Amino acid sequence: MHFDIDQYYSRLNSGEVILAYKGSISSELITNVLEVIDAKLEDLVIKKSIKKKLYNVLVESLQNLYHHIDDLPETSNGKFDVHFGIFVITKEGDRYKVSTGNFIKNDKIRSLQERLDRVKAMSKDELKNLYKQILNNQDFTKKGGVGLGLIDMAKRTDGQLDYKFSEYNQEYSFFNLDIYV
Amino acid sequence: MESIAIEGTTKTPEVKLNPENGVIEIKGRSIPENSIEFYRPIIEWLDEYAKKPNKKTTVNVQLEYFNTSSSKCILDIFKKLESLKKARNEVVINWYYEEDDEDMLESGEDYESIIRVPFKMIEIVD
Q: B29 to chain A: nearest residue by CA?
């Protein structure tokens, strides 16, 4: 039984939705989304520092999607765009929730899950030190990232993130990440 | 040596590199998906500049946002400046941050602690 992505998307799309997107995640799309969000943030009556945090988390989560999405093999990819991802921002009480969803190969889950759990359990100072250590010692990966996105988001939001892996088939799962600002 | 002036875009900062007065300015947003390409000419310019630098180099960094991909390139720039200072040149780094933007102040402090050149933290008040 496949994980039902449409159902998951409509579930995310409830409550006070600020922006919701489902489809191909390209560089142009990120530029467009950021422009729309810029205008929307202007209208929201919230502290400037919170707006900045939210914007930073948006940039990192969109670019994490861009760099790390796994595409389903063409044979089973009929209904999904290339580089398919989901991206929803909602307001929940006095917090903002940034949710992303993307396919991931099952054999990558374990190491990602370990990283997520480690980052979630770290104190602000530990995150700060880890960030500095990686910044100073790591070279760029093949994908042009530095492996800092997750740590940066956790640092800015005091580790307020939840995740879930839902099996899609024998080879792929759907990875959902929620970050609270 | 030529000066460089790059106009800012929604994803990349305005950059001014002036060898005459030794003033280096980076201003705006730095959030490209892949920052290496954008920063390469700046790093190359700094390598060239370091061969015959001004007596005093002033660096003004005034970023509204930067992503983790840029953070690495920005560190590379600061490392070039650190070497410049080690070679007994005067280097002044001004790190601007907006009022209440604790994250940006903290980022400046992080860089300062890595490269061991003192930063002047300047708060921009609306």
A: A56
From the candidates A25, A26, A29, A31, which should be mutated to test the interface with B, based on the most B CB atoms within 10 A?
A31
Which residues face A34 on adjacent strands?
Answer: none
Nearest by CB to residue B75, choosing from A63, A128, A135, is A135
ipTM of the complex: 0.90
Give residue limits of the domains in chain B. 4-124
Query: What global pTM score does this model have?
Result: 0.90
For chain A, list residues with pLDDT below 50. none
CA distance B5 to chain A (A): 23
CATH class (in words) of the domain with range B4-124 = alpha beta
| Cβ-based neighbours of A166, under 8 Å, separated by 6 or more | A3, A8, A173, A174, A176
Torsion of CA A107, A113, A116, A117, to 10 degrees: -160
What is residue A3's predicted lDDT score, i.e. its pLDDT? 85
**Residue A97: which domain range?**
5-180
Q: How many domains does chain A have?
A: 1
**CB neighbour class for A60 (10 Å; exposed up to 12, middle 13-18, buried from 19):** buried
Q: Which pLDDT belongs to residue A77?
A: 59
